[in-house]
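User: What would this chain look like folded?
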Amino acid sequence: MKTHPAKRVEIMIEALMERRLTEALHATGATGYTILPVLGGSGSSGPWTREGQVSRASGMIAVVCILRPDRLDDVLEAVYAVVENHIGVVSVSNCEVVRDTRF
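Assistant: Here's the prediction, encoded as structure tokens.
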């Protein structure tokens, strides 16, 4: 089966930034993404979990967006403008998709 090259952008960010991040993605035309809750992890400040948090607002989310390679720079600029002053990580990886017309 034929596959097509794409870029996978993963953003880990504070849950309270979800709306601003998704608005930035929409502004670039990247309207396809998935939002996942992040249960815990470990970073420069050490291990952490969502355990004991009263609301989802103080947690983290992961936003995964797959797009055509030619749209990557615009998306990264928009995402960076949101993540720049907040807790968060942005990663980019190469991937392959079967239905390239979706991206």
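The mean pLDDT is 88. If you want, I can go into more detail on any region.
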